[in-house]
Amino acid sequence: MDFYIDALAAVLTLGPLLAMIGATILGVFIGALPGLNPVMAIALLLPLTYSMDPLVALGMVAGIYNGSMYGGAIPSILLRIPGTPASIATTFDGFPMTEKGEASKALKVACWSSAIGGIASAIALMTVGPLLAKVTLLFGPAEYFWIAVFGMASVGVMVGSDPVKGVMSATLGLLIGTMGIDSLSGQARFTFGQTWLLGGLDLIVVLVGLYALPPVLQLAEKSDFKGLSAAALKLQAIPFKSGEIRSFIPTWIRSSGIGIAVGILPGAGGNIAAFLSYNAAKNTARDQDSFGKGNPKGVAAAETGNNADNAASMIPVLALGIPGNVVAALVLSALVIHGLQPGPQLFHQNPVLVGGFMMEMLLTSILIIFLGGALATRVFAQFQRLPGVLLVPSIMILMCVGVYVINGRPIDLWVMFAAGVAGYFLEKVNVPLAPIILGMILGPMAEQSVRRALLISRGDPSELLTRPISATLAIATLLVLIWPIAKSIRKSRAA
Amino acid sequence: MALGIATAWGASFYQGAGGTYPMVLGLLLTLLGTTVALRALRAQDSIERVLVDAPKKLWTGIAAGVLYIALVVPLGFYTASLLLMLAMPYALGFRRFTYALIVSVIFIAIVYAVFSFLLEKPLPREAVVILLSGGG
Question: How far apart are the first and last CA of chain A?
Answer without folding.
Answer: 55
